[in-house]
């Protein structure tokens, strides 16, 4: 190996893996590559992918081998990408790679090929491996694993914000399995809404505000949080209506009905509650002051 110093660096960076084209670039002749494989020093782990002696063929090498085998236009996807991103504890037995529709690549034992033209925003590179980005990976893995709902919740809490996952969903709407993704996304949004409501309650308590109620009935709906005496309604804009047209319409009907009935309507987002809590409380105080002054 001392004869090929740049090759040694490449092998270290690629978990001991190399393709014939890379070998040629680093001045390792094809006959030498074949010879090392024939005498057992190196191992062919996939078509056009070789493992140098002294390197284990572990999960990292296996997933990287799939990417090298599929080529520069491919992206490791789904649970394998989730494992690479640190979103899954256990690597999957089968590695999925997404390739452009124009490529005629067929599967190989342990490697599954899926044809889809990915948006550049859905592709990233981590430690030299081209793979799907966090947001698309979270969605595709949630579809694939048995506990998809729990996985998506963990991903949203630790790895990727909801708005990025939603945008990835929009870019891939209509793709195979994405009807299931929509259902998982709406359910996750509902759970996020409950968390947002709890945050607002904590903000109101910390600010010393009283006289508010959670879930006050109003016509056929319930107001998220309200100050009934002052007729102030506070609605938390739901992420769920981004993926559910009917829910979006219902939110708007409800808001219009509140305003028509003489209520002051305040709307806040998750971003407001978590990043601008002082703004939220200031808006509520201002509305309370106005309501009291005009009573």
TrEMBL record:
Task: Report the protein name in the record.
Answer: Very-short-patch-repair endonuclease
Q: Which organism is it from?
A: Pseudonocardia hierapolitana
A Pfam entry, by short name: DUF559
Q: What is the lineage of its organism?
A: Bacteria, Bacillati, Actinomycetota, Actinomycetes, Pseudonocardiales
UniProt keyword annotations, A-Z: Endonuclease, Hydrolase, Nuclease
What positions does the domain DUF559 occupy?
A: 191-288
Matching entries from Gene3D superfamilies are given as:
VSR Endonuclease
The entry lists its GO molecular-function terms as: endonuclease activity
């Amino acid at each position: 190996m001392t004869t090929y110093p740049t090759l040694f660096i490449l092998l270290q960076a690629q978990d001991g893996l190399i393709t014939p084209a890379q070998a040629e670039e680093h001045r390792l002749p094809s006959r030498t590559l074949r010879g090392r494989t024939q005498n057992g020093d190196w191992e062919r782990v996939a078509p056009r992918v070789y493992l140098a002696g002294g390197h284990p063929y572990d999960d990292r090498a296996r997933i990287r081998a799939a990417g090298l085998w599929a080529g520069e236009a491919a992206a490791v996807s789904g649970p394998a990408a989730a494992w690479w991103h640190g979103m899954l504890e256990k690597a999957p037995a089968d590695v999925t790679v997404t390739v452009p529709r124009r490529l005629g690549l067929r599967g190989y034992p342990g490697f599954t090929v899926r044809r889809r033209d990915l948006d550049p925003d859905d592709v990233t590179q981590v430690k030299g491996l081209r793979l799907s980005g966090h947001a698309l990976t979270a969605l595709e893995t949630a579809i694939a694993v048995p506990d998809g709902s729990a996985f998506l919740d963990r991903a949203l809490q630790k790895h990727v914000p909801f708005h990025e996952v939603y945008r990835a969903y929009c870019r891939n709407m209509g793709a195979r399995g994405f009807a299931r993704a929509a259902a998982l996304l709406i359910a996750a949004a509902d759970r996020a809404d409950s968390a947002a409501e709890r945050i607002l309650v904590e903000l109101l308590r910390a600010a010393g505000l009283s006289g508010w109620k959670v879930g006050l009935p109003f016509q056929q709906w319930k107001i998220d949080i309200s100050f009934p005496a002052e007729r102030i309604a506070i609605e938390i804009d739901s992420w769920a209506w981004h993926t559910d047209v009917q829910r979006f319409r219902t939110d708007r009907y409800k808001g219009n009905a509140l305003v028509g009935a003489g209520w002051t309507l305040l709307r806040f987002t998750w971003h407001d509650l978590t990043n601008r809590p002082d703004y939220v409380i200031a808006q509520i105080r201002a509305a309370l002051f106005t309501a009291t002054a005009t009573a």
